[in-house]
Amino acid sequence: MKVELVAVGDELLIGDVVNTNASRLGRMLTDAGLRVTGVSTVGDGLGELVEVLRIAVDRADAVLITGGLGPTSDDRTREAVARVAGVELRRDPEVEQWLRDRYRDTNRTLTGLGLQQADLPEGGRILPNDRGSAPGLTIEVRGTVVYATPGVPHEMAAMVGDQVLPDLLRRSGAPAPRAQRVLRTVGVGEGVVAQHLEPLEKDLAASGAVEVAYLAEPGETRVKLTSTGPGGGAEVDAAALRAYELLGDCVYAEGTESLVAVVARLLVERGATLAAAESLTGGLLAATVVTVPGVSAAFRGSVTAYATDVKTSVLGVGAALLAAEGAVHPQVAREMAEGVRALLSGTYGVATTGVAGPEPQDGRPVGEVHIAVAGPEGTVTVSPHLPGDRDRIRTLTVVRTLELLRRTILGLPQEPAREFTG
Amino acid sequence: MKVELVAVGDELLIGDVVNTNASRLGRMLTDAGLRVTGVSTVGDGLGELVEVLRIAVDRADAVLITGGLGPTSDDRTREAVARVAGVELRRDPEVEQWLRDRYRDTNRTLTGLGLQQADLPEGGRILPNDRGSAPGLTIEVRGTVVYATPGVPHEMAAMVGDQVLPDLLRRSGAPAPRAQRVLRTVGVGEGVVAQHLEPLEKDLAASGAVEVAYLAEPGETRVKLTSTGPGGGAEVDAAALRAYELLGDCVYAEGTESLVAVVARLLVERGATLAAAESLTGGLLAATVVTVPGVSAAFRGSVTAYATDVKTSVLGVGAALLAAEGAVHPQVAREMAEGVRALLSGTYGVATTGVAGPEPQDGRPVGEVHIAVAGPEGTVTVSPHLPGDRDRIRTLTVVRTLELLRRTILGLPQEPAREFTG
């Protein structure tokens, strides 16, 4: 069953909003065994929306629209669906009453534009929305089922999870799953990972049983091994085994477990705790750590020592060192890590210092970064030079810090073995 | 000139990667006065890619493809462009030599798959890539100019900014700009903002000179006023004046200045500094503050007191208070804000505590949040109940904290006037 997504809104085209709905839906539908074959983003204009919907309806078995259902004049999705279906819009009296009650309860005035949220193309069915005022709808158009949901991410996700997905699965029957394994690597680039897997790729190209795909994210590369037909678990397992041999300790996890989740799990398993001291990452390392549910068992807290004197007054970094070398120095990272470990009584203390840009600092170039991990066995530091803009340098610094911590906890060498770095 | 974007990659369809390229390009092209009329996302399969490209080429004056140019077997963009153009691929000897040098310099082996990066559709032109190994390309197809750039965001952005955009602007001539103003509001929902602007919308609907669009983001709503034709500055200015009257102090800025940038500017202008103490936001508040370039003049630093005892040992929150009330309490927020203000010698200290979920904490429900701002005039607190999941509650807490700080610095009431909250 081919599913196409259509995202509606000028704000998506002009880049005011990132289309996270598409990736979230992609994940939800893929996890359920459905196949997303395309995503179209279109503006608020009725003509373009009708045209894009028509193409999607002709091409796919199911079309899922997000956005354009609200109470403002640029919300035209209902009208567009009615046109593509070749039917009229009718006002649904039950929804109208529900809207009137809802607006009254929240002391708001329901205007004509608000009332359009009760309109439904003839032959369609309302999808109730218990998180907002705009209901969704579904209708069959020339053998293709069309769903429209609000664009507000949490309303969309609830409506799809509770109503759209069960309906889609009922229609598609249970899709035959293909075997898949995903190896997650860190510390080496996509090209290097692909190069190491060339022998495996060559064998797989000959057998045709397993596909290899690479997915690069900042500092990480995922390797996805998927059987080309239903089943194929044994072939995928054999390929994964070979990939492990070829990639060594660059593989930090399988499946959906992120690097920060692995680090949190390693800490919790050992009854160990973490404290962080941040300079250039400015809180991003801590904010990344706390995305893991349950991490409060292992995370003590952090200090963002953004002003240089705070590094001394709170973390105890030597004032003479800072005066002589500035804040961007491996020894500063070391003393920050050791200082925060003592201050917050953590098993491990980690620290970041460096230049995120846009300007050089203390005579050090943008991208110079020093990372330290202090633990029961002592302190280690790495000093990468990282590429990119302010955001990217910070993101890569967080990945490198988590990776150094992972290697320290597991007793691995500080960096991947030479043969894996090319 | 209509520009369509085509993003290539299975990882986008299955939701492994969020399509930030589309929003970034949308912003770049819109800022340059060009009009993005659609975005299509398609997988790695050659057939679908050719079909989507064909439609985009027929519909638009320019098509910008991102992704599918790399050295792996699922990179098929060059081949698809050649098919749509009806020409053959030829290997470019200069690019081949450049690739051989580049791979040799970085001790990598250039294989057949790597060499496909030197292939170019006949009649096309290479777009050099100085940040990665995959060059881009451009070619005219039936009167539409097609560009292909790498999918790696920073490579894409550099190639578009340096090469694609200048070429596009040369082709389009200077587009006639339409007048536009964007009012940024915080603290009230999109529906409430729209409701307050109904009198303005009614007048504008009659005159037809200015369009109103709403853009909701977590905790914020932007109001975009755009003239319907070229020029129209006076009409937009008059509409903006009216909107200011109707929205009062909920408007915090105009144009592209974000809430955190406004707060940073207010601090710097006053020679004031900020210190933050975070519990449920776990570093996100500090990480948001440091996204503003130049904020180091005003930001002292922060303490993430994730473990309850750290609130006492580092920030000086009363141990008896924590024992009696738990960590989720307005008085805890107050003492955290005052504690971090003293610890880091800031003009203002801000603090967040609450329950981000997924589980209740200390007998308090998910979404209960307490925020405090301590300053020279004393300390204020607000205690909103925030909706959504863990991420959303944290994001909304950061927005509410920045808004309370903005109001405190400016001497405004703690919350928008009653008439604006509906």
Automatic annotation (TrEMBL), chains A, B:
It comes from the Bacteria. Residues 4-171 form the MoaB/Mog domain. Gene3D superfamilies: 3.30.70.2860, CinA-like (3.90.950.20), MoaB/Mog-like domain (3.40.980.10). SMART domains: MoCF_biosynth. Pfam families: CinA, CinA_KH, MoCF_biosynth. Belongs to the CinA family. This is CinA-like protein. It comes from Streptodolium elevatio. The lineage of its organism: Bacteria, Bacillati, Actinomycetota, Actinomycetes, Kitasatosporales.
